[in-house]
Amino acid sequence: MAAATAIGGGRPQHRTPRGGDNPIGLAVALDWANGQVVAVGAGSAPGATFDASNDRLVSLSVSTNTWYTVGPTATATATKQAATSEFIASGAQRWVYVPAGMTIAVIQDTAGGFASMVAGLTAQ
Question: Does domain 28-123 fall into CATH 1.10.10?
Fold first, then answer.
């Protein structure tokens, strides 16, 4: 059963997905209307801020080996020894916690590609 999406009060929300009377655990409705695709290249490329007021859980998936970081003015680094960026392999998907007012920045490991970023909606 798909989650119904309602936009109210300026803040994206969704009803909890249910299987009969029971909530479905670990189900996240995605905010497809505000998803982002960022080109992954030799220089750090930040996405747009996801939400200025609320923390968000963002689905990050990439088409190439990528380094990413989160911050208010995020700059990803492809240096494997740097503790400022985390690696995600080509074809992988990861849930990333993004605090209010922050974004995700990406940079290629060895070859360019794309990063898809879609925030989950907050529960009512």
Answer: no
